[in-house]
User: What shape does this take?
Amino acid sequence: MASTLDSVSWLYGDIDGGDGDFGGDEDRDVDDATERRYDNKDSVILLVDCTLPMFQPADDDEEGCCFELCLKCAKSVLMNKIISSDKDLVAIVLFGTEKHKNSSDFKHVYVLQDLDQPDAERILQLERMLDDADFRKFKKDYGHNSSFSLSDVLWCCSIIFSNSPQKIGHKRVLLFTNSDNPHANDRTKQRQAKKKAEDMQNLGIDLEVMHMNPPGGKFDFSLFYQDVLMVADDDALAQYPDPADKFEELLTRVRGKDHKRRAMMRIPFCLGGDVQLAVGFYSLVRSQGKSPHIWLNSRTNEEVRPQTKYLCEDTGTALMPTDIKFTQEVGGERVVFEGEEVKSIKNLGKPGLHLLGFKPKTRLKMHHHVKPANFIYPDDALIKGSGTLFTTLLQRMLHREVVAICKLIPRSNSPPSFVALVPQTEELDDRNVQVAPPGFHIIYLPFADDLRKLKYEETPKANQEQIDKAKNVIKKLSFKFQSENFENPALQKHFKVLEALALERDAPDDIADLTEPDLDHIERRAGKVLDDFTQLVFPDDYDPVTAGKAKPAAKRKIGGGGGAEPAAKRVKASGDEEINVKEYAEEGKLAKLTLAVLKEFLRGVGLPLAGKKADLMERVNTHFGL
Assistant: This one.
C-alpha cells in the first residue's frame, strides 16, 4: 500500500485552496514560505506525436484520429487555463514532423506555440488546424517523419523551461502518443530517451504519458514507457490508467494532469511524543465564481493597483506600522496594546495537527458540520517516510472503522480547532482512472458554544397512509446525483459570452441549463403517485401554482363614491391643478405632459420610473391597455 500511495496519480487537478480561511479575517498572516509558493506560475508543455499512426482513422469514425483528439484536448486546456488560471504558462510542441522549429535546431521537433500565457490567437490557431479536412494542410506545412529522437524531444522541452524569462514554479510535460515502443529497432536511442527522462525528473520536471490505443491495436505500456516513467513494479503498473479510446476519456485524464495540486499549507502531524509526519492540506471543493474585474487607468489603459495608507487624523501624515497601536475597551477604560502584544495574545501554540485519540465512525454526526472539509495527503519532501507512516495509519483506521480526533492549529496566530480525520481508500473506475484519492478528510468539529437547541413549533403530524404515499413519490423520483454533472448556468453563460468576444464570433454558443427540472420526464415517471399524494394531503381547492403566494390587495377608491375617477388616474401638476392622465393617453397627448408628471403617475400605480420619456409614455399606454 505504501508504494501505491507514492506512485498513484492524483485525479483532482487544480485543488488550489489558496483562499481557504481557517480563522477569519484575523488570520491573514501567512508565513513567507506559503506566500512564495503562490508567486510562482505553473507551466505545462503539451507534447504531441505527429507520426503517421497518429493520423490513421480511428475504429470509431465519430471520434476522429488520435491527432485530432490531441488538438481538441489542447484547445480545452487553453480555454480552461484562461478561465481558471490565466497566469499559468502553456506550450505546444510537435515531434515526428518533417520540418523543425526550435531554439536548439533539433530535427523533427516543431515548437508550435512557445511557453507563454494562453490567449485567443492560440485557440484560433488550433481551431484552424481542426477545420483542416483530413489534415492536408498540416502535411504540407509540417509533414511526418519517424526518424526523430525522443531524447532530443525531451531535451527540447527541458530547454524551453530553462529559457523562460518568467518565474516558473511547477513544470510538467504531457506526452500524447499511440506508439507504445518508439525506437523499437534502435536500443541506443531508447537508452538515451530513458536517461533524459531521468534527468528531467532530477530537475523537477514531471513527465506524464497520455497514451491512446492505435487503430485496431492495444497500447502496451510495459514495452517502453514503464521504464521512462520510473514505474518500479507490476503492482504500480496495474494502477496506471488504461489507454484512452474516446475524447472524453482522454480529456478527463488531461484535466487531472495539466494542473499541479497546490497545498493550502504543509504542517507536521504529531502522533505523540517525537513521532510525527508531514502532511499537506488541500481543498477538494470550493465555490467557483466569475473572474475578478481589473482596475485600469482611464488615460493610459494600464492596470492600477490599490494601496492602503493610514494617516494621522490631526496632522495628516502617513503612519508607519510601528506607529499604530490597538485598543480594547474593558470596564469603561481603553487598554492599549502594541502589535507584538496582540500577536502574542493570539499565539496559542505552534502550527500543527496533534492527535488526541480515536472514536468510532458512528459518533460523527451530520450536524457536526461547521464549514467545508479539507483533505490531507503525506508530504515526504518535509519529513522522510511520511508516506509510509501515513499509509499504515490509514489502513488501520479503515480496518477498525474509527476516526481520529485531533487539535489543529493551521498557522501562527490562528485559534485552535478540533477536527475529525475520516479515512478514505483509493477508488478507481473500470479503466483504472482514479476517482477518489487515498487520504483523510478533515471534518471541523463544533465547540460547545457552537451547538444550539432550537424550539420547533408544533405542526400536524402525517398519518401512516400519507407517509406511505410520500415514500412512493421519493422512490419514483430518486436518482444518483453527482454534482460534476451539473454546471452553473450563470457562470457558463458569462464565460461563453467572453469566449465569443475574444474569439470574434457572431454570437455565443447556446447554454444547456441542466438545473432545469425535466417536467415531462417527472410526469411520466411519477405523475400518478404525485396525484395520489396531492389528493390525500391537500384540500380539494388546492392550486400548486398560487399556493404560498399572497393574494393581491383590493384596490382602494377615493372617498365620495359617485363617478369619481380612481386616484391613480389623476396626478397633480405644478400648483393645485389635477391632470387626468388617462384622457391624455386616450387622446395620444402624453407627449405634452412633463417628465415629472409621468413619473408621479407611474409611482402611484407602482410601475418602474427608469428610462427616457418615450419609455415612460409607453409604460403608461400599456397600463391603460392602449
The CA atoms of residues 226 and 237 lie 8 Å apart. The chain has 18 helices and 18 strands. The first helix runs from residue 2 to 7.
